[in-house]
């Protein structure tokens, strides 16, 4: 199989597994577990948003949580003012996208390098956190929605069926909505990446100069992928606000931003499934850590991040993929009696390193 | 008149604290092109070093000016040997690894010291200017910032060490051929940067609550200052601190401290749009 076919095969498998889970899980799980799975799906959408702009667009955004938080707050404020949730749902996607477009314009059209980009997005997140955190007093309200400062916004009206304000979604409905969103985002990005636009985006990541010489304005493509990433993160934020009917400034925080990066690094940069795997694994791990006192969650997350950057820079999914690939070749090419020396023949399958970081070496 | 004087002192103080907070980062980034996202946590360690030293009965000034820089400098050497040295030339990986280190340090300190706020009371009391009163410690911060800038300039331009360091950063191979070990120079530079961060943490300990997560409050300002400053270490540091510190403090006077920070950020982003290489990328080219 060539890489292209393999990538479609993996996409098909991922989608099949996803659809099976979508229809299978509500049957076998009680409502409580289903709510737990819903938050994993919400966070996976967030993870995928960064996986797309970083792994495929080459845009290192340390502040993806900014769009997540904006989406969450936009939904909360809009739905408290409007009642019906359809327009707030859309606004929660549009507002972060516009913010991303504005920020992206400054960054890409200023031709700031990767590293500056990381620092600026990080700073924006921190500033938003401080800003929202300081809105505790009763004078801070937008329309009829008090911002609540560090207390967050409680009792957010959750999604209802479009136009029917009394038909509020049950937790099971929310699971279906969230999981479907995840699958649609995955499928949409998959198709986008395979399209011509997607190829230019990936090409701009690999070599911006060359893309410019071919007549494409790399900045436009980068801006587009950054904005799309912001929109997806906003969607995740909106679903997050629905999940707990609550939102607070901590979702802008440094810890949140760090987690998203860790999901992508652990799962595998340059894939869309990897960050979902990383997200579920890390989220599960953090909730396990939360149940005991010996280790602090930050300590474990930090250690994981350092270890993966140093030792497994490609992440779990690509590394596993290589192992499976190698095993498959060995099984097919080397019959039982073949000497072990035949093995190195499989070595050249090493695909280009996913982490574009190495190419920025001076 | 008194008000004008107090405002002037406050603006100078804002500029000086930016210089102090960013100096360690500026040295590490400016010299080694390593973005140290654990910078805030180095400061946090410095603050905890001061608290630990005070518990042992050491004089506050010795704790700030001697114990904190040395303790954090040692931590810096260890981390450079264990992690950062493996990632030179890979800026993005270094950023990620140092971010991991920052989480790790927060986790370790939380496990050891607990998630509570410790405090040091500000020494020196205050003096009055007309109807206003100014904390004496404010003047110490301003004085230290001036001394720090002069010291960095002196070390880089007038000493053998600074010459070797600058040469190694520009052409490591050439320095190596001349018998200088680049890896040792990197190590020492990183340690100096870490020590400066530790000093900053120690100096700010009496002004802020000391908690394991305190680093996050400074790291954004420090980064914006260093990036806004551009390639020249000292001129960039002073230029960006002067600009952003003044904007921050004046906006704080006019509105609230949080909006002051927002003004700082907006100013920084607008400036980077106009001067992508930072202040010293266009002006003061070739200065230190």
UniProtKB/TrEMBL annotation, chain A:
Record membrane topology: Multi-pass membrane protein
InterPro entries documented for this protein: ABC_transp_permease, LivM-like
Keyword Cell membrane annotated: yes
Keywords, alphabetical: Cell membrane, Membrane, Transmembrane, Transmembrane helix
MF terms in GO: branched-chain amino acid transmembrane transporter activity
CC annotations in GO: plasma membrane
Protein's UniProt keywords contain Ubl conjugation: no
Residues that span the membrane, as ranges: 7-25, 37-58, 65-83, 89-108, 115-132, 174-193, 223-245, 260-285, 297-316
UniProt region (Disordered), positions on chain: 342-362
Top-level lineage group: Bacteria
Subcellular location as annotated: Cell membrane
PANTHER family reported in the protein's UniProt record: HIGH-AFFINITY BRANCHED-CHAIN AMINO ACID TRANSPORT SYSTEM PERMEASE (PTHR30482), SLR1201 PROTEIN (PTHR30482:SF4)
Name of this chain's protein: Branched-chain amino acid ABC transporter, permease protein
Protein source organism: Variovorax paradoxus B4
Lineage, opening ranks: Bacteria, Pseudomonadati, Pseudomonadota, Betaproteobacteria, Burkholderiales
From TrEMBL, chain B:
InterPro entries with a match to the protein in the record: ABC_transp_permease, BCAA_transport_permease
Main localization, broad class: membrane
Topological relation to the membrane, as annotated: Multi-pass membrane protein
Top-level taxon of the source organism: Bacteria
TM region(s), chain numbering: 6-29, 36-54, 60-84, 96-114, 134-156, 177-197, 231-251, 257-275
Pfam families documented for this protein: BPD_transp_2 (PF02653)
Any single GO CC term annotated in Swiss-Prot or TrEMBL for this entry: plasma membrane
UniProt subcellular location: Cell membrane
Gene Ontology MF terms: transmembrane transporter activity
An individual GO BP term: amino acid transport
Keyword annotations: Amino-acid transport, Cell membrane, Membrane, Transmembrane, Transmembrane helix, Transport
PANTHER family given in the database record: ABC TRANSPORTER PERMEASE PROTEIN, BRANCHED-CHAIN AMINO ACID TRANSPORT SYSTEM PERMEASE PROTEIN LIVH
Family according to the record: Belongs to the binding-protein-dependent transport system permease family. LivHM subfamily.
Name listed for the protein in its UniProt record: Branched-chain amino acid ABC transporter, permease protein
Lineage start: Bacteria, Pseudomonadati, Pseudomonadota, Betaproteobacteria, Burkholderiales
């Amino acid at each position: 199989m060539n890489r292209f076919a393999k990538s479609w095969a993996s996409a098909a498998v991922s989608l099949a597994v996803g659809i099976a889970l979508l229809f299978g899980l509500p049957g076998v799980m009680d409502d409580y577990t289903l709510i737990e799975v819903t938050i994993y799906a919400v966070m996976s959408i967030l993870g995928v948003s960064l996986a797309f702009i970083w792994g495929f667009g080459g845009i290192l955004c340390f502040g993806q949580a900014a769009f997540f938080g904006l989406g969450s707050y936009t939904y909360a404020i809009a739905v408290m003012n409007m009642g019906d949730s359809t327009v707030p749902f859309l606004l929660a996607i549009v507002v972060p996208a516009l913010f991303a477009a504005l920020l992206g314009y400054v960054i890409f059209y200023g031709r700031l390098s990767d590293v500056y980009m990381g620092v600026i997005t990080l700073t924006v997140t921190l500033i938003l956190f401080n800003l929202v955190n300081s809105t505790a007093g009763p004078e801070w309200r937008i329309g009829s929605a008090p911002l609540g400062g560090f207390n967050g916004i409680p009792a957010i009206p959750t999604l209802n069926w479009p136009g029917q304000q009394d038909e509020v979604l049950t937790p099971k409905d929310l699971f279906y909505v969230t999981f479907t969103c995840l699958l649609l985002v995955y499928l949409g990005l998959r198709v986008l990446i395979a399209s011509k636009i997607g190829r230019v985006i990936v090409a701009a990541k690999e070599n911006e100069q060359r893309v410019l010489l071919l007549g494409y304005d790399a900045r436009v493509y980068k801006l587009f992928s950054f904005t799309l990433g912001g929109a997806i993160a906003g969607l995740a934020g909106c679903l997050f606000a629905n999940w707990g009917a609550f939102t607070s400034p901590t979702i802008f925080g440094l810890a949140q931003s760090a987690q998203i990066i860790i999901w992508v690094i652990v799962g595998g940069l340059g894939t869309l499934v990897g960050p979902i795997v990383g997200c579920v694994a890390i989220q599960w791990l953090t909730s396990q850590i939360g149940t005991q006192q010996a280790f602090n969650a930050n300590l474990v997350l930090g250690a994981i991040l350092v270890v993966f950057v140093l030792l497994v820079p490609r992440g779990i999914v690509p590394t596993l993929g290589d192992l499976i690939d190698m095993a498959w070749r060995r099984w097919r090419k080397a019959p039982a009696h073949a000497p072990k020396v035949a093995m190195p023949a499989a070595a050249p399958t090493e695909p280009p390193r996913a982490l574009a970081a190495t190419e920025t070496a001076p | 008149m008194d008000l004008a004087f107090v405002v002037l002192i406050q603006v100078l103080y804002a500029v000086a604290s930016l210089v102090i907070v960013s100096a360690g980062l500026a040295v590490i980034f400016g010299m080694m092109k390593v973005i140290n996202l654990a910078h805030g946590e180095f400061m946090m360690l410095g603050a905890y070093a001061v608290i630990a030293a005070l518990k042992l009965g050491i004089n506050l000034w010795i704790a700030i000016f001697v114990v904190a820089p040395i303790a954090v400098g040692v931590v810096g050497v260890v981390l450079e040997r264990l992690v950062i040295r493996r990632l030179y030339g890979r800026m993005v990986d270094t950023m990620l690894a140092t971010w991991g280190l920052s989480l790790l340090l927060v986790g370790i300190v939380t496990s050891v010291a607990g998630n509570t706020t410790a405090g040091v009371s500000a020494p020196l009391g205050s003096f009055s200017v007309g109807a206003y009163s100014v904390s004496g410690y404010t003047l110490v911060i301003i004085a230290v910032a001036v001394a720090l800038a002069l010291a960095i300039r002196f070390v880089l331009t007038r000493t053998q060490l600074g010459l070797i360091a600058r040469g190694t950063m520009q052409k490591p191979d050439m320095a190596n051929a001349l018998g200088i070990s680049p890896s040792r120079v990197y190590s020492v530079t990183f340690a100096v940067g870490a020590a400066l961060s530790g000093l900053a943490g120690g100096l700010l300990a009496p002004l802020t609550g000391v908690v394991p997560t305190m680093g996050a409050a400074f790291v954004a300002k420090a980064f914006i200052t260093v990036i806004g400053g551009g390639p020249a270490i000292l001129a960039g540091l002073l230029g960006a601190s002067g600009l952003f510190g003044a904007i921050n403090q004046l906006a704080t006077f006019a509105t609230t401290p949080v909006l002051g920070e927002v003004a700082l950020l907006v100013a920084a982003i607008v400036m980077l749009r106009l001067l992508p290489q930072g202040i010293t990328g266009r002006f003061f080219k070739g200065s230190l």
